[in-house]
């Protein structure tokens, strides 16, 4: 372009649109008074002038800036994570074209009724879409076959495990696998249970049935029943597809649609893995995993009180913030719900493990 002096340096983002990979393509672009201009492979992609670009904060935790527009070829969007690049874009983008996402901004007093209608009607429509988004995600998740979820989970875990120090010959590995097999009996997911060397008292589960227990959690638990309580909770995140739902939400519609259509390619799994670290469950999902976990423990004839005693211990220790408590700090209400779900008067046999020896010496 001829106004090179007005151009900023190359900025980075992920471009989605017709003819591009479903998970988007990394691109560089420049922003000038004349508009957005893409470099390299995407040089043919055009965008209208700034005031005609819609934008919003999106991605997980709304940390991305997402710019959207439509051309004759179809709908494009550009997701920008880098804060410096975002501020360059925001300097150009018109506040009026921001699409509400999350808490609504204050409404302005319109001086005439026509403007009020022009503003209010689109806002109502956007509100309706946001309200429907939860149902749309449920619909999309329900459309994803379990086999696709397992394939995707396996791809994602294969990429994730390179970052984990797995200790599959840990003294507690057999116990973890046995407890997992008891708790996941009859499931449609082919569970894998792993121990990772990590001092944080944490555990996590990935869609498709990949469960990882940190050595720090083994050290923090004081009985096999407490460990089983945590595992029952994690397994229910898989059974209830909480992680899958979170990934669909974070990865966006184009990715979700391509998964529904059966695309489980490596690049797609990679884009989902990127969102895994930031994945947080909602309060209702945590409660669901707690209560379903108690039921699973009872079915497996394992004393569910281990779950409650472990949660209380973790909550009392501010330094330890496992997945179990980080997104929604344990409250009395949560404990009360878990404890109310315990069967009254039933006696469970103690698990026959020498837990203190098996958990290792990391305490
Ligand atoms: Zn959880």
Describe the structure.
- With 363 residues, the chain is of the alpha+beta class.
- The chain folds into two domains: 4-99, Roll (PH-domain like); 141-358, no CATH class.
- Helices cover 45% and strands 14% of the residues.
- The chain is built from 14 helices and nine strands.
- The chain has helices at 83-92, 113-143, 146-160, 173-183, 215-220, 224-239, 242-251, 253-260, 266-276, 283-299, 305-316, 323-326, 332-340, 355-358, and strands at 11-16, 25-32, 35-38, 54-58, 64-71, 74-80, 192-196, 203-206, 210-214.
- The strands form two sheets. A six-stranded antiparallel sheet has the order 3-2-1-6-5-4, covered by helices on one side. A three-stranded mixed sheet has the order 7-9-8.
- β2 and β3 form a beta hairpin.
- α4 crosses α6 (224-239) and α6 packs across α11.
- The chain is elongated.
- Bound molecules: zinc ion (ZN).
Give keywords.
alpha+beta; 363 residues; elongated; 14% strand; 6-stranded antiparallel sheet; PH-domain like; 2 domains; 3-stranded mixed sheet; binds zinc ion
Give me a quick take on this structure:
It is built from 14 helices and nine strands. The protein is of the alpha+beta class.
| Rg (CA only) | 24 Å
Q: Residue-averaged pLDDT, rounded? A: 82
Query: Bound small molecules, which ones?
Result: zinc ion
> Which sequence of SSEs, written as H and E, runs from N to C?
EEEEEEHHHHEEEHHHHHHHHHH
Question: How would the global form be characterised?
Answer: elongated
Beta-strand residue percentage: 5-15%
Specify the structural class. Answer: alpha+beta
């Amino acid at each position: 372009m001829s106004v090179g002096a007005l151009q900023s340096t190359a900025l980075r983002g992920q471009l989605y649109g017709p003819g591009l990979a479903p998970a988007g393509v990394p691109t560089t672009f420049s922003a000038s008074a004349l508009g957005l201009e893409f470099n390299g492979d995407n040089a043919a992609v055009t965008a209208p002038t700034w005031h005609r670009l819609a934008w919003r904060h999106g991605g997980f935790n709304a940390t991305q800036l997402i710019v959207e527009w439509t051309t004759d070829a179809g709908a494009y969007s550009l997701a920008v994570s880098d804060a410096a690049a975002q501020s360059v874009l925001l300097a150009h983008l018109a506040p009026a074209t921001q699409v509400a996402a999350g808490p609504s901004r204050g409404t302005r007093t319109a001086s005439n009724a026509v403007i009020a209608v022009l503003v209010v009607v689109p806002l109502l429509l956007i509100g309706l879409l946001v309200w429907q988004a939860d149902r749309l995600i449920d619909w999309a998740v329900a459309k994803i076959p379990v086999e696709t979820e397992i394939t995707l989970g396996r791809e994602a875990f294969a990429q994730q495990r390179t970052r984990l120090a797995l200790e599959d010959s840990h003294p507690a590995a057999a116990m973890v696998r046995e407890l997992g097999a008891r708790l996941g009996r009859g499931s449609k997911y082919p569970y894998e249970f792993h121990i990772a060397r990590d001092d944080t008292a944490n555990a996590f589960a990935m869609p498709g049935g990949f469960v990882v227990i940190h050595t720090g959690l083994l050290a923090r638990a004081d009985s096999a029943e407490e460990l089983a309580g945590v595992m029952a909770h994690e397994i229910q995140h898989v059974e209830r597809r909480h992680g899958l739902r979170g990934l669909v939400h974070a990865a966006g519609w184009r990715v979700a649609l391509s998964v529904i259509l059966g695309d489980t390619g490596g690049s797609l799994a990679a884009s989902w893995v990127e969102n895994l670290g930031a994945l947080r469950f909602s309060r209702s999902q945590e409660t669901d995993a707690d209560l379903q976990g108690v039921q699973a423990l009872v079915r497996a004839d394992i004393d569910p009180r281990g779950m409650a005693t472990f949660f209380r211990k973790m909550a009392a220790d501010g330094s330890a913030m496992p997945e179990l408590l980080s997104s929604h700090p344990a409250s009395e209400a949560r404990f009360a719900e878990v404890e109310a779900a315990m069967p009254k008067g039933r006696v469970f046999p103690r698990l026959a493990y020498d837990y203190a020896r098996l958990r290792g010496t990391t305490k």
